[in-house]
Each structure stands twice: as C-alpha cells, then as structure tokens.
Design a protein that fits this description.
- This protein has 294 residues and is mainly alpha-helical.
- It has a domain at 106-284: MetI-like fold (Orthogonal Bundle).
- The protein has helices at 28-38, 49-63, 73-82, 84-118, 120-135, 138-148, 152-177, 181-189, 194-232, 242-250, 255-283, 288-291.
- Helix 4 (84-118) packs antiparallel against helix 5 and helix 10 (242-250) packs antiparallel against helix 11.
- The longest helix has 39 residues, at 194-232.
- It is globular, with a radius of gyration of 31 Å.
Length: 294
C-alpha cells in the first residue's frame, strides 16, 4: 500500500486592514514644522528694546555717569521734548534732502542700467566710472560740488545722490541681465523688439534686484545727506542735521547730540521699513522671495 504524501500545513489567512482603518500620522519633518508654527517663538531677552532701554537706564544710574559722557534714556527723551523746535526743524530739512537725493539716484540709476543692458560694450566702457564714484570718499568730493554749485540745497542733494547711486546701478543691471535663457530664446523666436523684451521680460525679472538696491540706497542717501550738511556747514534751521550736531559737540551739553543721533537712526530705520513694505506690495503676490514662509 502506497504511503500518501504528507499534506502541507495550510497557511493561516493574512488579514489586512483597510487603509482607512489605520490611523494616519503626518511625516516627522511635516509634524515638526507644524509644531514649530503652532508654538510662537519669543525673541531673545537681549533682543527686546524694553530690556535694552531698562539696562541702559540702570547702568547710567548705578554707575552715576555724567550726562556729558552718556546721557540716560529719560534725559534724552526730555531733550527731545524741550529742544524739539530746533531738532524737528533740522530733521525735516535733512529728510527733504534725503528724499530728493534718493529720487534722483533712483531715476539716474535706472536710466543708466537701461543703457548698460542694451550693449555689453557700453557697460564695459562706462561701468568703471560708476565704480570710481562709489570708491571715492564723498568727504573729498563734497567741497568741490559745494563750490561748483551755488545753491546749498542742490549741492547737498547731488552729494547725497552720488552716495546712493551705485547700488541702484549695480543691482538693476544685474537684474536686467539675470533672464532665463529659455524665455529669452522664446522672445527671440517670436521676433520681439528690444523695447518689448525690456518691458515684458527684463524689467519683471529685475524687480527683486531693483528693490534690493532701493533698501540699500535709502540708508546711503541719508548718510550722504548728513555728510553733505557737515561739509556745507550752513547756519540756522536751513543747515539741517549737520549744524546742530556740530554745535552740540562743541558745547558741554551732549544730550542734544545724542538726541540728534537718535532721530537720525530712527529715520534710517523708517526708510528701510518703508522700502521693505514697498517690496512686499510689489512682489508679495508672485515672487518666491516674498511668498515663501520658511
């Protein structure tokens, strides 16, 4: 009698759960990002303005520093209120010179960049002169401009505009040339003119670079205006910020000088914030530099 083959053990059925039944959990990197966004980040202790001002006031009071060496924040605020007639009028003149110089530098820088991008030979021939203006100290050039230009306001505007000109030229020229080759080939394939290529391709590609140059030039225009006022040395409220600083530095009353420095610093911060806001308004809807939240 033949021996039957041993039967193989039957495999137990594998029960698979439906994918919807299993709990889904977000991947680790995504969960970490969500947790980081859920918990608000607190700024460091030394990065809070209130802490720095309180520390400044405490050190001045504890060390009994004289006001002519380092004034306290409370004394500076009192000086701003008591001397606001002189400081505010001078600040307005300085802001006016800064804005005029910034507008002149922006218009001139954009026009020069448009000229550079039309021909590589023109850029190679003229760009060294723009670099020469940038590396030449404005303190050395300002006396000559003030002598040549009889109007004090116009001379100071020219000096400040020369300081703020180079970042506009450099950034805008770089942006106008930073065009994707495929898009440029597409425009050439459709026989677009130079003006059409400039308006519809190069200018939109250059906007992020242009606004980056504006953020730099706004602060440089303010610095150029202050330096020009120092060199000009004009008297009275028309002298702007330069004369009050020199007068405060020559006298033992240093709090007005620190108050003037505070106003100038706040003005520079306000200009930078304004340029950053304009950048978000212009690029916030389509460019990655403003739409990314990482």
């Amino acid at each position: 009698m033949s021996t039957p083959f041993p039967s193989a053990p039957m495999a137990s059925p594998v029960v698979t759960a439906h994918p919807a039944a299993a709990p889904r959990s977000a991947p680790a990197p995504v969960a970490a990002k969500l947790a980081a966004k859920a918990t608000p980040k607190r700024p460091p202790l030394m990065g809070q303005p209130r802490v720095l001002i309180a520390l400044w006031q405490g050190l001045v009071t504890a060390m009994e520093l004289p006001p002519y060496l380092v004034p306290s924040p409370i004394l500076m605020m009192k000086t701003l209120f008591t001397d606001w007639a002189a400081l505010g009028g001078s600040l307005w003149v300085t802001v006016k010179i800064t804005v005029l110089a910034f507008v002149v530098a922006t218009v001139a820088g954009v026009l020069i960049s448009f000229l550079f991008v039309q021909s590589k030979r023109i850029e190679t021939a003229l760009f060294p002169y723009a670099v020469l203006l940038q590396v030449t100290p404005i303190v050395a050039v300002a006396p000559l401009i003030i002598i040549w230009v009889k109007d004090p306001t116009a001379s100071m505007v020219i000096c400040a505009a020369l300081v703020a000109l180079f970042p506009i030229i450099s950034n805008t020229t770089l942006g106008l040339r930073s065009v994707e080759p495929d898009l440029q080939s597409y425009f050439q394939l459709n026989r677009a003119t130079r003006l059409q290529t400039l308006l519809r391709l190069r200018i939109p590609s250059a906007l992020p670079y242009f606004f980056g140059g504006l953020r730099i030039s706004s602060g440089l225009a303010l610095i150029g205006a202050v330096v020009a006022e120092f060199v000009a040395g004009t008297r009275g409220p028309g002298g702007g910020r330069g004369y009050p600083k020199l007068a405060a530095g020559a006298s033992p009353q240093h709090p007005p000088m620190f108050a003037a420095l505070l106003l100038i610093s706040l003005t520079g911060v306000a200009l930078f914030v304004l340029m950053a806001w304009l950048t978000r308004v212009a690029l916030g809807g389509w460019h990655a530099s403003e739409t990314s939240h990482d």
